[in-house]
Amino acid sequence: MVGFLLSRALLSIGMITVIANGFLQGDLKERVGVFKKDYLLPGITCLFLLPFISGLWSSNQSAWLEMMQDMLPLFLLPFAMTIQKGFERKHFFYFALVWMSLLFTGSLWSAAYYLSDQESYQALYRLSKTLPTPAENDHIRFSMAIVIALLLWLKLEEWKSSFSQLIKWTSRVAAAWFVIYLHVLGAKTGLMGLYVVVLPLFIWQLYRTGKKQIATAALIAAFCLPVAAYYSIPTFRIRLQYVLFEQNNWQEKQFAGSFSDVNRLASIKSGWHVFQNNWLKGVGYGDIKEEAAKWYAANAPEIPSSQQFLPLNLWMLSGSGAGIAAVLLFTVVVLLPFFRRYWQQNKQALAFVLFMDLVFLYESTINDQFGVFLFCFFILYWNLSIRPVKQ
Question: Which of 8-17, 285-294, 299-308 has the lowest mean pLDDT?
Answer without folding.
Answer: 299-308
